[in-house]
Amino acid sequence: MGSLPDWAPPFGRLTEGLSVLILKPTTTSILACLGCCLLATSGRAQTPSSSDRPSNPNRPVVEERKSRETAKLKGELTFDDIKFDIEKDGKFNRAMLTQEIEELNKKTFKIRGYILPASVWKQSGIEEFVLVRDNMQCCFGPGAALYDCIMVQMEKGKTADFTTRPVAVNGKFEIKEFKYPDSQDHYAIYKITAIEVK
Fold this sequence. Notes:
It is a single chain. This protein has helices at 68-73, 99-102; strands at 76-77, 107-115, 128-132, 149-154, 167-179, 186-197. α2 links the parallel β1 and β2. The chain is globular. It has 2 helices and 6 strands; from the N terminus they run αβαβββββ.
């Protein structure tokens, strides 16, 4: 593969040997991906597990993470809570969703993630965008996991402002299938009608 032209954006200059696809936005869908799935597992710091840490018999055992069930009861959701088994590039079927995921449908939650830059065309007054799990990997579009993105529609009269920092989206979570035009393939299966983004 030849070198990128001088006008290519900085995110296109990843590492030697990686293919880069730069898509122009279309009016029928948001088909952009700003990362590379190969980067998703590289370069991340690993948190030592409790078995790797030296033990101190005088120190009381403290729960390292709060229970996910307790967090959900408090209205907090994570992308791990909506993850399910599906083959890479596999066809989605509603039966793949676990009972736990189905029970989240049409309930109000707060979930943290990143606004996908390619899903917005202005800095403020944003009425809809794609919320993704991570700003370091490809979480939307072809090749991405369906559970790594949520379509966000702001409640009538509410808007959001763009930021590259993590945001907390509060609103009604729904299981809703979004398909590419003229196709049975899905680009998203989750939606939040948001009352607040901060």
